[in-house]
Amino acid sequence: TNTLNITNNNYYSVEVENITAQVQFSKTVIGKARLNNITIIGPLDMKQIDYTVPTVIAEEMSYMFDFCTLISIKVHNIVLMMQVTVTTTYFGHSEQISQERYQYVDCGRNTTYQLGQSEYLNVLQPQQ
């Protein structure tokens, strides 16, 4: 589960139309998610949006499964890339904001996960 903290720094409401997220290992997409018609953020307000991207390590990545279940090592760190795009609308105008981040994940079977990775987005900054 990830959390987006979206801030509206304007004096008018904006609609968070959709959020698309994708998780990659190396160049292989292992998960995608899309949320539609999410919420409206009032003027000078902030909202938190939780979302989950289901991921699958499939047949073509059997080497990854072997690594993640290897008993001889205790920590099974892999690096995943997560891309998130938020589409907002206001006054009939659409705007997209994207973020990309890399995250270390322990894919081992005896892993305790810390829930909730937070990302902060300031949407629709008034132009200077």
Question: Could you describe the 3D structure shown?
Answer:
This protein has one helix spanning 62-68; strands at residues 2-8, 14-25, 28-41, 45-51, 77-90, 93-106, 117-123. Strands 3-2-5-6 form a four-stranded antiparallel beta sheet, with no helix packed on it. With 128 residues, it is mostly beta strands. It has a single domain, classed as Immunoglobulin-like, CATH 2.60.40. Residues 113-118 and 120-128 have low confidence and may be disordered. It comes from Equus caballus.
Relevant terms:
128 residues; mainly beta; Immunoglobulin-like; four-stranded antiparallel beta sheet; three-stranded mixed beta sheet; 7 strands; 5% helix; elongated; disordered C terminus; transmembrane; endosome
How is the main sheet built?
A: 4 strands, antiparallel
CATH C-level? Mainly Beta
So how many helices?
1
Mean pLDDT: 82
Report the count of strand segments. 7
The CATH H-level superfamily is: Immunoglobulins
Query: Would you identify the CATH architecture?
Result: Sandwich
